[in-house]
Amino acid sequence: MDTNPYLVRGAGLGLRRSILSQIVESPPSAVDFYEVAPENWITIGGKSGRQFRAMTERYDFICHGLSLSLGSTDPLDEAFVLEVKKFLAEHNIKFYSEHLSYCSKDGHLYDLMPIPFTEEAVTHVVGRIKRVQDILEQRIAIENVSYYAAPGQEMDEIDFFNAVVSEADCNVLLDINNIYVNSVNHGYDAEAFLKAMPAHGIAYAHIAGHYVEAEDFLVDTHGADVIDPVWKLLGKAYELFGVFPTLLERDFDIPLLAGLIKEVNIIKVIQNDWRVQHERKSA
Hints:
Elements: E1 11-14, H1 17-25, E2 33-36, H2 46-58, E3 60-64, H3 78-90, E4 95-99, E5 101-104, E6 108-114, H4 119-136, E7 141-143, H5 157-168, E8 171-175, H6 176-186, H7 190-195, E9 202-207, E10 211-214, E11 217-219, H8 228-241, E12 246-248, H9 257-282
Parallel strand pairs: 1-2, 1-12, 2-3, 3-4, 4-7, 7-8, 8-9, 9-12
Antiparallel strand pairs: 5-6, 10-11
Helix pairs in contact: 1-2, 4-5, 8-9
């Protein structure tokens, strides 16, 4: 398997169908790579299919899955994994990532549910990740997820995540906003959690906005601009681990393309600032 975690570079953007035509007609120079959910694009045809093909022929792409349901007790959908494998090869997609969660129980639940933080769950999900990696013949990256309850918890979130990554021998999709949201909702220190992440496995990162339901309750919507504390946490991650590829997620209340590019450029500014500081320290 390829163990190099950095298969893309710079700052990326989640590609949504609502902005596909704009990007095809006038590709923004700020975007170094794009990300799509394979479930939304595998069967696409017609004009959108041709536009998508034109994009994947010109730019680096990553896939971020929504329905693999790694924590489910339902049988792993190996037929779907094979479809993903074909899609990755057809479009020369650099990497595949998924959530450390589940979304099915005798059928799809249409939501990402938290896996219990237990040793038994570690063993279960590790076996499923290994099987996916065997079928794909490559490592995948696992995302630290936002969650609002932790039923049956026997381990801390960070210990559960680290155990899964270590035992599955997979990479990490570091979601900065999820760390911030969880730190507020569950009352822990975001920087301390970040420092404990398995940095050697980071393949790339997500950054996004969220909804403030209450002072102590945030909802991970990907439907708002990124706030300053989350940008600062991204900078802290670069300080701790070096600069890694980082992608802006926006799924709801999507602004004009110029608004998205403004935030992609903020990623690039923060990346450049930390590169400069590192070079000065190394000089």
